[in-house]
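ugh finaly. both done.
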Amino acid sequence: MLTWTQREGVKGRWVPGFVLLPFCRFAQEAAPQWVTTTAVIVILVAAAVVAFIIYERRIRGFERLAEKLGLKFHEHGRGGAGIPNESFLARSGWFAAAGRTRLQLEGMLDGFRVSVFEYYRVSDETKGTTRGYPVSVFTADMRGLPLPAFLLRPEGIRLKLAQAFGGADIDFLEGNSARFSARYALTSDDETGMRSVFGGELRRFLGERPGWIVEVVEDRLLCYRPPKIFRFLRHTPKRVSRLVKDSREILRLLNAACAKKS
């Protein structure tokens, strides 16, 4: 038993109704039919109200975060937010290439045009239901920087698909790189360029923070983590704040490495 709640502009929420079954069965045996029906309606309405309140608090949280960062907030997103069709994200199987965005922050940050959003795909256009696992994504426009295309991913994640992007796994044997090389696989057609871009500070930063996927495709930087299976662990203001903080540091270190190359 599942209950469905929906309001304009908000994707439907499934409320686990199985938690109500013991109560419903007891009520059916111990009370008249109208009492049982009324009780179930009251519980379902209460669940819908709670879901609405939680969503509204989430929206207010994103509005405060956008104001703090000096970015604009779009509740319903703005298209695909420039996700390249050839990116690992678009081709990973988590999404179709024409994914959708929502709960999006965008604007100028540290001199770059950035966008942060929840990325998902729609399986039913009429109902607006989602398919696959939504993922929080940070993107930045890197045009003008001498940054080769690359894909950095956790070791072992979708290895065969990643190899299709070209290039062998680039290992670093320098003193502080053991943790980085053990946790990540870096592929690119420009190994020399990658060795100059991924300096010791960047390798140390990522080595201490496992689980990132970072890629540059068509002059766009994408930073994200594999999507969460449990929906309650997804795109929230607190998690997005941490995503932006770490992604800004990755962006800063990449920019500094490019400045040294110039």
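ok and the 2nd:
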Amino acid sequence: MEEQAIKLPEGQEPGLSEKDKKKDKKEAKKDVSLVKLEIALYRAQMAMVRTATTMTTFGFALYKLLEEKAKDGHERPALHVITPRMIALVLFFAGFVGLVTFSFKHVHTLKRVGIFKPAFYYSGIMLMSYILMLLTFGLFLGVYING
């Protein structure tokens, strides 16, 4: 039995119609824009980790420096109200809250656009965020309790 070729109207080539081509092109643009959004969110999360790390490190360094200066008998910091402990607590708290809120925002945005995957919770950047959150929270508690 011979296969018969389907005859197309004159001027039409086999393959996708113009409407299908436009639809495929639109789908491809949407996929690319979602990938770009996901990459932008990861970059922003990394920037927040960097910022929280800087705030935690700076808070700890200032705490130790000003605490040693106070022990050596130097004059206390400005206004006699701002202590090394208060500076450290504010910086630790700001870094912790910033990281937590941005992590929630990141997950919420991924869910809203429909590209969230549960494996995201175990991605490298989120694991770094968890470790930094625990470290910052531990430092906050340590400075708060030991005052």
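summary for the 2nd one i guess: The helical segments are 18-71, 84-113, 124-146.
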